[in-house]
Automatic annotation (TrEMBL):
GO MF entry, a single one: metal ion binding
Lineage, broadest ranks: Bacteria, Pseudomonadati, Thermodesulfobacteriota, Desulfobulbia, Desulfobulbales
Residues given in the record as [4Fe-4S] cluster 1 binding sites: C14, C50, C84
UniProt xrefs under Gene3D superfamilies: Methylthiotransferase, N-terminal domain (3.40.50.12160), tm_1862 like domain (3.80.30.20)
Native species: Desulfurivibrio alkaliphilus (strain DSM 19089 / UNIQEM U267 / AHT2)
Domain (TRAM): residue spans on this chain: 386-450
Name of the protein: tRNA-2-methylthio-N(6)-dimethylallyladenosine synthase
Gene from which this protein is expressed: miaB
Subunit record text: Monomer.
Length: 452
């Protein structure tokens, strides 16, 4: 019998990191490491880090710092840092923190078991942060076990970003865009569907440019762009819902908009980060679209799919942002009426061009703008929620609701959470119709009418 060891893994950041952590957990389980929820009993700790804002990176650093005492107690413990802070800080992390063993960038996660083994046996300390534009994302079939979230999974379709928005660290930590082979993606989705997965979210920093790095059309068969990939994914039997994230507004093509008219399984939810409502700031951010371009795309999406929920990301306090620029963002938010939005205070990032810009906005101004924006968005989200009361919506069952006894919880096609009463026989991944009776702060409440 092989001896088993314990793996503790902590994940920060975006869905891309969540998926990478699943891959690392699976690879380590093949090397006889079982996941534990207690770092004190781990033989290997992996911290999968995010560097998108200063705070995210600080969180990773302070967590890693705290593990010094565990290493002191058990020198055979292997501590690995993965993700975007690992890529960004490389071997400096090993210099700054002598208790760390491994630093692994996002393109190197597949080497984790081998590197952990050599750290354990030979006490080698390694930095694996090569970042190549010729990187090939390996075909890799996910393990589907009996956990509650098994009805929905992330599928990475590409990595990296070529856009270089001036505030952003991602092109520096994830490298250039690399698309996965379409056949690997379809195989993965088929495999998931065969194991009971009913919803997939296709992941990339900018899914609209899927395939553009894979050479001229035709060299990869029929699937050479994102709309073609979407068509192939919705055609997989057993998949009921397809989502994707994220798309850059500048690359939102008429063909992709058309997918929302043609493909029923494609959920009417579009995350379309705008960042700012001011043309001057958009130009300084290097976003390559204007407010008018953006609004035209929103209008086209709504024309083909009137029920579409549009969500966004916003940054306040970008260097040089005036009150008038901020007002333009507030106006845009009022005009578009986003279903929900993530908003952030601008934060300087290493290697990102805006870190060197003049006219930094004072912290208290950023805080005030953020709270005004969030307050307004919260009102809009609640108004949209209230307008849904009295209608019947399709809900994919997720599991028992966390808050209320005996209730079920699930999501609408627009990704809103619905808590509802229904029979005990329901299973995650099932589609049911729910009559909505009440809009709460961050969810809707209702009663099941029938299974689909
Ligand atoms: N690839 C995605 C965004 C990934 S980062 C896209 O282009 O849409 C997620 C969000 O973090 C961004 O949309 C942006 O709103 C925010 N963000 C990125 N860098 C930031 C920074 N330096 N300061 C504050 N927010 C930032
Ligand atoms: Fe960052 Fe811009 Fe790329 Fe998104 S598109 S990951 S915000 S550089
Ligand atoms: Fe963070 Fe890297 Fe994702 S910086 S948001 S983990 S791509």
């Amino acid at each position: 019998m092989t001896e088993t060891r314990n793996l503790y893994i902590e994940t920060f950041g975006c869905q891309m990191n969540e998926r990478d952590s699943e891959i690392m957990t699976q690879l380590m389980s093949q090397a006889a490491y079982l996941e534990t929820s207690r770092p004190e009993e781990a033989d290997c700790i992996v911290v999968n880090t995010c560097s998108i804002r200063g705070k995210a990176a600080q969180k990773a650093y302070s967590l890693l710092g705290g593990y010094r005492r565990l290493k002191k107690r058990r020198p055979e413990l292997v501590i690995a840092v993965a993700g975007c802070v690992a890529q960004q800080d490389g071997e400096n992390l090993l210099k700054k923190m002598p208790h760390l063993d491994l630093v692994i960038g996002p393109q190197n996660i597949y080497r984790l078991p081998e590197l952990v083994e050599s750290a354990r046996r030979q006490a080698t300390r390694t930095t694996a942060t090569e970042l190549s534009k010729d990187f090939v994302i390996p075909p890799f079939l996910p393990q589907v076990n009996g956990t509650a979230t098994n009805h929905k999974r992330f599928v990475t379709i590409m990595q990296g970003c070529n856009n270089f928005c001036t505030y952003c660290v991602v092109p520096h930590t994830r490298g250039r865009e690399v698309s996965r082979k379409p056949e690997d993606i379809i195989n993965e989705v088929r495999h998931l569907a065969d194991h009971g997965v009913r919803e997939v979210t296709l992941l990339g920093q900018n899914v609209n440019s899927y395939g553009q790095d894979r050479g001229p059309a035709g060299t990869t068969g029929q699937i050479d762009d994102f709309p073609a990939l979407l068509q192939a994914v919705v055609a997989v039997e057993g998949i009921y819902r397809v989502r994707f994230t994220t798309s850059h507004p500048k690359d939102l093509s008429p063909e992709l908009i058309d997918c929302f008219a043609q493909l029923n399984k494609l959920c009417p939810h579009f995350h379309l980060p705008v960042q700012s409502g001011s043309d001057r700031i958009l130009a300084r951010m290097n976003r390559k679209y204007s407010r008018a371009d953006y609004l035209a795309r929103v209008a086209q999406l709504r024309r083909v799919r009137p029920d579409i929920a549009i969500t966004t990301d916003l940054i306040v306090g970008f260097p040089g942002e005036t009150e008038a620029d901020f007002e333009a963002t507030m106006e845009l938010v009022n005009f578009v009426r986003y279903d929900s939005a993530f908003s952030f205070k601008y934060s300087d990032r290493p290697n990102a061009a805006a870190a060197a810009f003049d006219d930094k906005v004072p912290e208290e101004v950023k805080s005030r703008r953020l709270s005004l924006l969030q307050q307004r968005q919260e009102e809009i989200s609640r108004e949209i929620g209230r307008s849904m009361v009295g209608s019947t919506v399709e809900v994919m069952v997720e599991g028992r609701s966390k808050n209320s006894d005996g209730q079920w919880s699930g999501r609408t096609p627009t990704n809103r959470i619905v808590n509802f009463t229904g029979p005990d026989s329901l299973r995650p991944g099932e589609l049911v119709d729910v009559y909505l009776e009440e809009a709460c702060r961050h969810s809707l409440r209702g009663r099941m009418r029938r299974a689909k």
